[in-house]
Amino acid sequence: MIIRKLYQGEKSPINLLLLADPSHSLVEEYLKRGECYVAELDNQIVGVYVLLPTRPETVELVNIAVEESFQNRGIGKQLIFHAIQLAKLKDYKTIEIGTGNSSIGQLALYQKCGFRITGVDQNFFIRHYNQKIVENGIQCKDMIRLSLEI
Length: 150
Ligand code: ACO
Prior knowledge:
With about 150 residues, the chain is α+β, with helices and mostly antiparallel strands. It contains five helices and nine strands; from the N terminus they run βααβββαβαβαβββ.
């Protein structure tokens, strides 16, 4: 498997990006402002993430997703470690990530990769999304913010 930057002019894997965030407009906004990386296996794009500069020395990992049939094989972890290395190379000091209060697996994964919880953006998903999101039998209301000093 290789992880590479999306080529100039190459179409972004929008369906994969929408797996991580159902808001088309937010995904488009992240693509405009950030850099998109893809995981490619046998010429098929199986994973994606976007690295988004936010504040001085800080970058956010957004829109990370792995094709459903390729999940739970360590690809998500490899994408996160790739993003951390890339952020280090680019001299960022902090990498952040945010996910819903109901995203139990994602919260486990990010903490396994070294991220620590720094805060809660209460009602983020109520404010920014029209449709109700439910995962693991829990309504997704709050954004859990995590970060890692690199
Ligand atoms: N409890 C404990 N650990 C869990 C749980 C759980 N409920 N669910 C997953 N994990 C752990 C696994 O045990 C594994 O850890 P291990 O390597 O120590 O065994 C790890 O999380 C999963 O690792 P990977 O196999 O590397 O992850 P995967 O390739 O499946 O990708 C991802 C993870 C990207 C979250 C994938 O499931 C996905 O695409 N989901 C849909 C889109 C999504 O929700 N994206 C994140 C949105 S938030 C954002 O983008 C910032």
